[in-house]
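yo, Putative hexapeptide repeat-containing transferase is done. seq:
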Amino acid sequence: MSRLEFARSRLHLKQPESSVNVMIHPWVKIGVGFEVFSGAVIGHTGFGFERDENGISVEIVHTGGVVIGDYVRIGENSVVARGTLGDTVIEDHVKIDALCHIAHNVLVGARTMMASLIDITGSVTIGTDVWIGSHTIIKNKVKIGNHALIGVGAVVIHDVPAGAVVAGNPARILRFQEGFGE
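structure:
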């Protein structure tokens, strides 16, 4: 039995008929109702390097896993990296479109929607009910507040408060959604 067949039988994996070449590593925990599409890779070792005393790149060992909540959908050719020490976590009802990259130790809050071609770098925290537009890049360790809206093509290099609408390169606060902010 393949890893995917095992996941489907034991973890309620719902793989569309047309999905092929999906890789789910053994350190991935999957909730019920998970949908994954062709070419997705879940739980790979991320791209993490540090320089030693001689300036030589040394790979950072990743020993964490990936935890995927219930009713999560991950689109074609998207990648979710395993955590370095802790886990990369995607909470319940998150929807991720095609060609997205989620790096190590990221937390994606419940009900977040991510359009295609998004790069979430290491240790980013995304709150609940966030919407992220296509072609967005979020810098490592940035925190995105609940109910934030990130515009198409944004390059987010600073924390985003709850309810903020941001866009641009670098992303700037345009306004706050009703009931939030200043």
